[in-house]
Every structure is written in structure tokens, then in C-alpha cells.
Amino acid sequence: MDNKFVLAFLAIFSNVIGQVFLKGGLGYKVDGVQTIPKWAKILGAKPLEISFQGGGGLSQVVAFITNFPALLGALMGLVFFVFWVALVSKAGLGFANGMMALFFVIICVVSRFLFGEYLGGLKLVGIILIMFGFLFVAIGEQYGLPIQK
Length: 149
Description:
Blueprint: H1 3-26, E1 28-30, E2 33-35, H2 38-42, H3 57-65, H4 68-91, H5 93-115, H6 121-143
Antiparallel strand pairs: 1-2
Helix pairs in contact: 1-4, 1-5, 4-5, 5-6
């Protein structure tokens, strides 16, 4: 398997993990109430609404740093960035973005099971279209003909 596919997998995986831990650690609103999933509470997450409206700046930073799932999510964002830069430098932006489209499919499915998010008909159609696009990019990268200028 080509090194760029491994880099794409690592970038996608680290991005999904980072997003899940950020959302789980910071919480999300359900019917207007800030909610933390059970698995995130076990890891020490506390509800945290980040506000840029003044008041509580340092206390919000401390609350974020002591919130293990949220901090892990942010750190995974940095890991994703490293893999993303490596992928773009090795394979080019067209390939990298084509591969990263798979992230949207994975995060929709994971969010459905971990956070109970809605996964309806239009989302499913979008997922199917993204999967076809992903396959076209992957197949085109392996077997496609180069376009001459």
C-alpha cells in the first residue's frame, strides 16, 4: 500500500478521534440543556460553554485544560494537522481533499451512535455520493490517466 494512503488514514483517524473527544468533552445541547455523554463524564468531562463575550477568560482556559476529553480532542487536532501537512506535501491537495471527504462519512456515522445525532434520508444520500467520490479519487489515483496541459 502506498505511503500516501497510510497518511490519509492517519489524518482521517486522528481528526475523527479529535472531533469526538472535543464534542464529548465540551458537551452539547439537547433540548436546551448542556449534555455530557457518560463515557466523557467517566474521563472527567464537565459541561463547558466557551464564551467570547468577556468575563471568565482565565477560568475558561483552566476549565478546558482540566477537562481531559476536551484537551485530548484539541491535542488530536494538532496530530491531525501534522498528518494533514505530511499528506498534502506527499500527495498534493487534490488527493488529500478527496481522501478527507471520507472523514464526513465516518463522523456522521460515529455521531449517530455516540451522540444520537439525526441520520436521515438526505444525509444518507450525501454519504452515498461522498463514498462514490471517494472511490473515484482512490481509483483515479491508482489507475487514472494524467491530464496533460
